């Protein structure tokens, strides 16, 4: 298990057999780049600066799928990308469930997401509709005079 407080993760490449990595309470954002960690099964990124801006979270999830193929547990609580009442009072359980479908669509091997076990029904729904569950922030509507 590694507990890291940092803004750069460059040194992790020397720990290729790492299985658990806790990166909570850092200033990590959507530009997070991990080295290939084929044995990593647990990653927590709670309370960082990860959001769903301009498809960058989708890029981050694609990156994780590539560099941590054994990932089974991921937690993103406390980030804007994880839409729940802890981050934004306007979010509800439906917003959170859509987020789960989208993440599970991208990271098919997850067994736990945040604090909840992935159910068979969620996995099936993620396969069918997960790609369409991307949480997006609507652009400001400009009103013409």
UniProtKB/TrEMBL annotation:
Coiled coil location: none
TM segment ranges: none
Cited Pfam families: LRR_9 (PF14580)
InterPro entries the UniProt entry points to: LRMDA, LRR_dom_sf
Origin superkingdom: Eukaryota
Gene Ontology biological-process entries: melanocyte differentiation
Protein's name in the database: LRMDA protein
Biological source species: Phaetusa simplex (large-billed tern)
